[in-house]
Automatic annotation (TrEMBL):
UniProt name for this protein: 2-oxo-4-hydroxy-4-carboxy-5-ureidoimidazoline decarboxylase
Keyword Thylakoid: no
Cofactor: Mn(2+)
Subunit structure: Homodimer.
Cited Pfam families: OHCU_decarbox, Peptidase_M20
GO MF annotation, one: 2-oxo-4-hydroxy-4-carboxy-5-ureidoimidazoline decarboxylase activity
Species name: Roseateles subflavus
Gene name, Swiss-Prot/TrEMBL: uraD
Family: Belongs to the peptidase M20 family.
Alphabetical list of InterPro entries matching this protein: Amidase_Cbmase, Bact_exopeptidase_dim_dom, OHCU_decarboxylase, OHCU_decarboxylase-1, OHCU_decarboxylase_sf, Peptidase_M20
Top EC class of this enzyme: lyase
Highest taxon in the source lineage: Bacteria
Annotated ranges, domain Oxo-4-hydroxy-4-carboxy-5-ureidoimidazoline decarboxylase: 9-170
Length: 597
């Protein structure tokens, strides 16, 4: 018989602990402490409450929880001594059918891992879909995580334990994240389209207006039609636009969207998660026979990453009337002009057709965007969703420090004009100044000594600067401090320097009213609300120039890594993302009519 949340909330403590026996391996103390957090208004809230207990536990208790778990394909598994839950999980991953070579490799990894960390390797082997990882994927994760620092790996073990508990709770409650499964299935289908040579290597790469890019657009258009959008079209820049009509013809529109292009060797969820989640929300609305008191316009933006042409946000720029005509003459690495690429893809390639894409802000309520976080914050806090407060503004530079190249053996230390040493000081100055200003980040991502040699004091050093903050005043304060530090370093060392601006992007604070709507949607799911800034840029930054906007972040697994094949989202978190969007739409319906349409 499946568990039910209502009676679970009313059980005495020991009965509550008994009902959750086996959710966390041999650790009844977790359920016992979680009992004091009742009532839980949702299964998601129960999961988060249990994770909170573990996060607030002592280090010894956390290590005890980790050590309560068996090794993968270890002695306990061979001897048939695993719990029923662990037996099921390892069997779903096929670990009982390891080849001799796979079994030997796992034993070697188990020994090496135990010697390095002192606890067993923990992996949610049923994976992001709950169906089971392949043995090769398990071995690759094992090998990758062996190199992690102990504190990082301990936390990753705990996160995997929470994922194991989540899947066990789903089984115990008879809960299936159906909407999340649909989103992940759709992401997998889109990932079949990739450019050479990435496709041949099993990697994902979809850059602007390539054949795989056009194939993704066609698949998205078909998915929107099948989900029930009333109008679907691919516009003059390759944006895929779906419109769900309102319950009355004169109603305003809510704009939503994200991008479907990718970086090279990308993950499957950056950008696309928001598009696919919205498609599932619309499918659900149409299955319910519902119309909203406002129209819903979904734009799958064709370009956000700036991988093929140096015209980042070109598709969302057009919607706010900021498309630069000079972009049409930009050339890619093969010398193909943007205008010619547009025409080859079947678009007019004219400035007039692009300018016609501009939206009239008076027709729109605002813009909302769902997006994978692309960072570790939600992952570290064991939270599936987070409300974005602002999209960071940035200033970027390329620079060069000029000193004097000289012999490394004959030039005394106090006579050197070492450009690389000055750059090293600059790296530390950027770190120091950003740490001193909460909410700011600074990075020297590129360092190069042109023509450098092992026995030559560097006479030149090239570098990059990337300075970001959630508001322009903080960004500019960091910028001023870093530039002053660079000048001081070079003056003290007798060096020259140049600094060339390459990007100036204003911060895009999320509109308070729309932040509040996302917060209400998260609370409606029984989850706590956590607010955080976005360090990465998004299409919302451009739409911000014309409409109030707000974003909701969805937790990424694998420490929140993104722009990488390890980028991942669980079916449960994807499911919550769709449900959060539905809750926002329902809340907005209440605002407009006093009840859902």
């Amino acid at each position: 018989m499946n568990l039910d949340l209502h009676p679970l909330n009313t059980l005495d403590t020991e009965a509550f602990v008994a009902a959750l026996d086996g959710i966390y391996e041999h650790s009844p103390w977790i359920a016992r402490r979680a009992a004091a957090l009742r009532p839980f208004s949702s299964l998601a809230g129960l999961k988060q409450g249990l994770a909170r207990v573990v996060r607030e536990a002592s280090l010894d208790e956390q290590l005890g929880l980790i050590r309560a778990h068996p090794e993968l394909a270890g002695k306990a598994a061979v001897a048939g001594q695993l719990t029923a839950e662990s037996t099921d999980e390892q069997s779903r991953a096929g670990l009982q059918h390891c080849s001799p070579a796979e079994f030997e490799r796992l034993q070697v990894l188990n020994r090496a891992y135990g010697e390095r960390f002192g606890w067993p390797f923990i992996l949610a082997v049923r994976g992001p879909r709950g169906q089971g990882l392949s043995r090769q994927a398990i071995i690759e994760a094992f090998e990758r995580r062996l190199a992690a620092p102990p504190d990082v790996e301990r936390s990753e073990c705990l996160r995997n334990i929470h994922r194991i508990a989540e899947i066990r709770l789903n089984d115990r409650f008879g809960a299936e994240p159906r909407l999340g499964n649909a989103v992940l299935d759709a992401a997998d289908r889109l990932a079949r389209h990739s450019e050479p040579p990435f496709a041949e290597q099993g990697q994902l790469c979809v850059t602007y207006l390539t054949l795989p890019h056009q194939a993704v657009a066609q698949d998205l258009a078909l998915a929107m039609r099948e989900a029930g959008f009333d109008e679907v079209a691919i516009d003059a820049l390759g944006n895929v636009v779906g419109l769900l009509h309102a319950s009355r013809p004169d109603a305003p529109r809510l704009l939503t969207g994200s991008h479907y292009d990718t970086v090279r060797n990308a993950g499957r969820h950056d950008g696309r998660l928001g598009v696919l989640a919205t498609i599932e929300a619309v499918r659900q609305l149409r299955q319910e026979g519902r119309r909203l008191p406002f129209a819903l316009e979904l734009v799958a933006f064709s370009e956000e990453e700036g991988q093929r042409y140096a015209a980042t946000f070109l598709s969302s720029s057009a919607l706010v009337g900021r498309f630069d005509p000079a972009w049409l003459d930009q050339r890619d690495a093969d010398g193909i002009r943007l205008q010619d690429a547009l025409r080859a893809a079947g678009h007019p390639g004219t400035l007039g057709s692009i300018e016609a894409l501009r939206r009239d802000p008076a027709r729109y309520l605002g813009y909302v965007e769902l997006h994978i976080e692309q960072g570790p914050v939600l992952c570290e806090l064991d939270l599936p969703l987070g409300v974005v407060t602002s999209i960071n503004g940035s200033r970027r530079y390329t620079g060069e420090i000029l000193g004097l190249a000289s012999h490394a053996g004959t030039t005394p230390m106090d006579r050197r004009r070492d450009a690389a040493a000055a750059a090293a000081e600059l790296v530390l100055a950027v770190e120091r100044e950003a740490l001193a200003r909460p909410g700011t980040v600074g990075t020297v991502g590129l360092l190069e000594v042109p023509g450098g040699s092992i026995n030559v004091v560097p006479g030149r050093c090239r570098f990059s600067l990337d300075l970001r903050a959630g508001d322009d005043a903080a960004r500019d304060a960091l910028d001023g401090a870093v530039r002053a530090a660079l000048a001081s370093i070079c003056d003290r060392r007798g060096l020259q320097h140049t600094l060339t601006p390459t990007v100036v992007a204003s911060a895009a604070p999320c509109a308070p009213a729309w932040q509040a709507r996302w917060a209400s949607a998260v609370e409606a799911l029984g989850l706590p609300v956590h607010r955080l800034p976005s360090g990465a840029g998004h299409d919302a930054m451009k739409i911000h120039e014309a409409l109030p906007q707000a974003m909701l972040f969805v937790r990424g697994g694998n420490l929140g890594i993104s722009h990488n094949p390890l980028e991942t989202v669980s079916n449960d978190d994807a499911d919550l993302a769709v449900r959060a969007l539905r809750a926002l739409l329902d809340g907005l319906s209440h605002e407009h009519e006093g009840h859902p349409a």
